[in-house]
Structure formats: structure tokens, C-alpha cells
């Protein structure tokens, strides 16, 4: 189970009152989300490639939904929550605090328009 600032996240996602994207945003902002330096960036070695076959087994740790691989940014994207998990040296960093917000989710955009 998650600990620290996001320890309550799993139970909050189950509740009907708070939309998942709002919980994810709060979690990311509260943790001071930042991307750590890739080992290959520090050493100058070419980064290891991510194996897209892993997408069959990987899901977002927050929403338990499938992820999309974005090769150009080397990230795994959760469209529903609008967050991206970095892939470091070929290994997805699935820790919610390591994720970044990509954009407003579709649900949030709809709510703001009404």
C-alpha cells in the first residue's frame, strides 16, 4: 500500500465524492512531484529501451486502468487521470510521486465547462 502523502489515495479513489483526477492532482502537488535524473543521462550511455509487451501486465497504481506508452516522451500515460509515469533506463517508475500531470482530464474539462 502507498505511504506518506498518498497513503489515503486508494481509499479516496473508491469514494464517490472526489473525482479521481482531483485526488491524483492533490497527491502529485502535495508530494512535490519531480522527475529524477535518468542514470543514462548522468553517464552518457544510451537509455535502455522499454519493452511495450509489458503493457499487457502494467496498470496505473492509482486507478488500476491500462496505460498507454508514449515513445516520444518515454512515459506511460493514464489518459483518465491525466498523469504520466516516467520510464527510467527502460524501467517504468510507477510511484505516484514520480508522475507528472499531463493535462486536464476529459471529465474535469467537462465539469469546468458546466
TrEMBL record:
Highest taxon, organism lineage: Eukaryota
Predominant place of localization: mitochondrion
Entry's localization field: Mitochondrion
Keywords assigned: Mitochondrion, Transit peptide
Entry keyword annotation includes Mitochondrion: yes
Gene Ontology CC entries for this record: mitochondrion
SUPFAM superfamilies per record: Trm112p-like (SSF158997)
InterPro entries referenced in this protein's UniProt entry, alphabetically: Trm112-like
Matching PANTHER family: PROTEIN PREY, MITOCHONDRIAL, ZGC:162634
Similarity annotation: Belongs to the PREY family.
Protein name: Protein preY, mitochondrial
Organism lineage string: Eukaryota, Metazoa, Chordata, Craniata, Vertebrata
Recorded name of the encoding gene: LOC111153305
Amino acid at each position: 500500500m502507498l505511504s506518506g502523502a498518498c497513503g489515503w489515495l486508494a481509499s479516496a479513489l473508491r469514494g464517490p465524492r472526489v473525482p479521481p483526477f482531483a485526488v491524483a492532482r492533490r497527491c502529485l502537488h502535495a508530494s512535490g512531484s519531480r522527475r529524477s535524473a535518468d542514470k543514462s543521462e548522468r553517464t552518457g550511455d544510451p537509455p535502455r529501451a522499454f519493452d511495450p509487451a509489458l503493457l499487457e501486465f502494467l496498470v496505473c497504481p492509482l486507478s488500476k486502468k491500462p496505460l498507454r506508452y508514449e515513445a516520444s516522451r518515454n512515459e506511460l500515460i493514464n489518459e483518465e487521470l491525466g498523469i504520466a509515469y516516467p520510464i527510467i533506463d527502460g524501467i517504468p517508475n510507477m510511484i505516484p510521486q514520480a508522475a507528472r500531470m499531463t493535462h486536464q482530464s476529459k471529465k474535469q474539462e467537462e465539469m469546468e465547462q458546466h
